[in-house]
């Protein structure tokens, strides 16, 4: 018995020593990276991570990044990337230690990394032990992961705040729960900065060859300014940054039996609010059209989300709802009774993909749209693979007879331009125009710009200095953006834009900062 106790004590001592050595090595690696940006939130983390990394690369900073979303990627300083290897395909926050070690090998000036923790306690460990970020990003608070961080959105907001750096800076574009974020930031002596999406012009958004939101761009520009990269240089770097594999996209296919299909991949927006916003935008822009069909991919570890996707079916009013993955019942039962007859169960996750794809395409009309929602993993990935094998539809759009026939001018006649799907997503083209009336009524402003509490040492963006540890080049000296005159909103305006301030000269200032 004494021998067993001795072996136990020796093993525990060895593990303790190994843990101390690993912790010190990890801390040494962190110290080699002066600027560490941790991106947290519910929606858009991967895109913001890539935008921030691109902005810092554009400023001449050696920058390493890592995303976790649709496909985990390690992004090298030259913007090349590779998948993150995971043993048995299981994600674990401990992998951040290896990411930091690989990043430190480049002797970088900045590391931009996406938070991969969901449990509140793990989010705090990810910040306090694994990353120790100098700049935090909390992009938004949405209805997702309620079982772990909920049950209310206020609880989700407080859980996300656990990733805020103590005695540091946190950047956010969240409006509705800004007061909660401010309260949590004050408790951590963290300076909370609101990234106003209205400071991003339509002209600046036109430079992107992929779909993104002004909130994401505003956050990346604020982070770049904090480390001394000027706005123009940061934007150029963001334009050149490769998009995330899960970025919103629309493809046009031709099936074997001659049908036309417009397919929208909305898997990345896997909370109800973001899903509805993206689909309604695509409908209003003409990128997809009715008859609309929806495919919901279910996962056994996301039963609550499966039900949320079923609950929004009345808002989408599709012709058919295809359910793939497992358990399909979790999504079908959540669909209201009057719409449940439109649901088609394609057989769960054990059915051969060739079979359920043949049945899905066979049920579509001659010219229809298909929107994929829920979660991409599992049969969602198989769906994308099989659709990618279809030939592209390069035929011109047919103009409806009602639109082709001239009619008598009305008193409030409006000229509506046709928006072609392929032109909408072609690189560097200008798809922007005035909003359709349906879009204006749906996304009318409803919220005010959040006001930040005045602290004893207010943060003055006009005298912002580079973050400690980063020496900016002359080309990357921080500049204060000049307030621009109000411009007509572009097509990719956020759903609930903040109300304009009373004085245009306050554009670019921190909310709540006294105007001088």
From TrEMBL:
Pfam families xref list: Mur_ligase_M
UniProt signal peptide: none
Ranges of Low complexity composition bias in the record: 470-479
Biased composition (Polar residues): 449-460, 504-516
Domain Mur ligase central: 41-199
UniProt-listed InterPro entries: Capsule_biosynth_CapB (IPR008337), Mur_ligase_cen (IPR013221), MurCDEF_pg_biosynth (IPR050061)
Residue segments, region Disordered: 443-516
PANTHER family the record matches: PGA SYNTHASE CAPB (PTHR43445:SF1), UDP-N-ACETYLMURAMATE--L-ALANINE LIGASE-RELATED (PTHR43445)
Name of the featured protein: Poly-gamma-glutamate synthase PgsB
The organism of origin for this protein: Streptomyces niphimycinicus
Name of the gene this protein is made from: pgsB
């Amino acid at each position: 018995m004494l021998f067993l106790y001795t072996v136990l004590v020796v093993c525990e001592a060895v593990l303790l020593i190994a843990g101390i050595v690993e912790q010190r090595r990890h801390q040494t690696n962190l110290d080699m990276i002066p600027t560490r940006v941790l991106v947290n939130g519910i929606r858009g983390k991967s895109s913001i991570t890539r935008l921030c990394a691109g902005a810092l690369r554009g400023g001449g900073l050696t920058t390493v990044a890592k995303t976790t979303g649709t496909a985990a990627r390690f992004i090298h300083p030259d913007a090349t990337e590779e998948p993150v290897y995971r043993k048995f395909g299981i994600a674990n926050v401990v992998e951040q230690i290896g990411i930091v070690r690989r990043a430190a090998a480049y002797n970088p000036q900045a590391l931009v990394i996406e938070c991969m923790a969901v449990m509140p306690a793990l989010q705090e460990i990810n910040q306090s032990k694994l990353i120790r970020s100098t700049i935090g990003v909390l992009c938004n608070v949405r209805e997702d992961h309620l079982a772990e961080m909920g049950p209310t959105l206020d609880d989700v907001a407080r859980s996300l705040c656990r990733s805020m750096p103590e005695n540091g800076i946190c950047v956010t574009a969240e409006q509705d729960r800004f007061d909660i974020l401010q309260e949590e930031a004050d408790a951590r002596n963290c300076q909370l900065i609101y990234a106003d999406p209205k400071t991003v012009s339509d002209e600046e958004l036109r430079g992107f060859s992929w779909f993104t939101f002004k909130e994401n761009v505003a956050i990346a520009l604020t982070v770049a300014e904090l480390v001394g990269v000027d706005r123009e240089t940061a934007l150029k770097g963001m334009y050149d940054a490769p998009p995330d594999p899960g970025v919103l996209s629309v493809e046009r296919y031709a099936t074997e039996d001659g049908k036309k299909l417009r397919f929208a991949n909305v898997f990345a927006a896997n909370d109800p609010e973001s899903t509805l916003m993206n689909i309604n935008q695509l409908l209003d822009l003409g990128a997809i059209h009715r008859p609309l069909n929806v495919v919901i991919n279910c996962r056994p570890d996301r039963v609550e989300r499966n039900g949320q996707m079923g609950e929004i079916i009345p808002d989408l009013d599709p012709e058919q709802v295809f359910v793939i993955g497992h358990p399909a019942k979790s999504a079908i039962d959540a669909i209201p009774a009057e719409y449940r007859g439109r649901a088609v169960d394609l057989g769960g996750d054990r059915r051969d993909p060739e079979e359920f794809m043949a049945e899905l395409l066979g049920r579509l009309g001659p010219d229809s749209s298909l929107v994929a929602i829920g979660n991409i993993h599992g049969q969602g990935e198989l769906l994308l693979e099989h659709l990618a094998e279809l030939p592209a539809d390069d035929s011109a759009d047919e103009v409806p007879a009602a639109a082709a026939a001239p009619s008598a001018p009305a008193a409030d006649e409006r000229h509506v331009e046709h928006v072609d799907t392929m032109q909408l997503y072609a690189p560097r083209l200008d798809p922007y125009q005035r909003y359709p009336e349906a879009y204006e009524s749906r996304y009318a402003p409803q919220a005010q710009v959040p006001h930040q509490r005045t602290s004893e040492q207010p943060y003055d963006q006009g005298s912002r200095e580079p973050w400690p540890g980063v020496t900016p080049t002359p080309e990357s000296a921080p500049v204060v953006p000049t307030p621009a005159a109000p411009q007509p909103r572009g097509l990719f305006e956020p759903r609930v834009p903040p109300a304009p301030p009373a004085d245009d000269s306050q554009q670019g200032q921190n909310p709540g900062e006294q105007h001088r």
